[in-house]
Amino acid sequence: MKRIVVLSGAGLSAESGLGTFRDTDGLWTKYDLEEVATPQGFSRNPALVHDFYNARRANMRAAAPNAAHAALARLSQSPGVTLVTQNIDDLLERAGASGVIHMHGELDRALCAACGHRWTAPDVMTPDAPCPACAAGPTRPDIVWFGELPYHMETIEAAVTEADLFVSIGTSGTVYPAAGFVELARAVGAETLELNLEGSGGRFDTVREGSATDVVPGWVAEITGDA
User: 1-17+66-104+150-227 has which fold?
Assistant: First the structure.
């Protein structure tokens, strides 16, 4: 099988009821992103930030993986496949995917800003909860906020430079550094494919338009020979 790197974004989980940045009436629209998704916002009002992510965590835990998650989970069992996601939900893992690289962190994880310890987040996080390792704080969601560096960039870039096929699913592809992955893939001669509601503008060799549950299972079936 080809060496494949799959980058997924919010469009992968939208049909499971988890909103995207563009939703006109979704959770994101009820908050100022500067206040809930930046280190500065957390410093100003940690309770507000925890309230926001507690709500997102509850939404995630009430959601179920969809057919696109299940298809990618099957694909992840094949040799040479790397799943990278911008999403902070756990739906790929709950669908059975292995080795998912979360470049923006995970809602199910907590982080101590004092000592760097990470642990499984409770349903409800609060500003006064101490770190289980150092008993200090503040403790925060293990999420990459605006202005912070995404996780695992060296690992992701190494995988892309070795890929035969780079696939982008459900992401606008306009925010760096993730937006640069397709250029990196093209520079090393990899094929590039976009699966999205609408194409993002001509940077991919092939574009298949449609919802994730419509286009992802069919593509995976072709790759695995189950079509």
Answer: Rossmann fold (3.40.50)
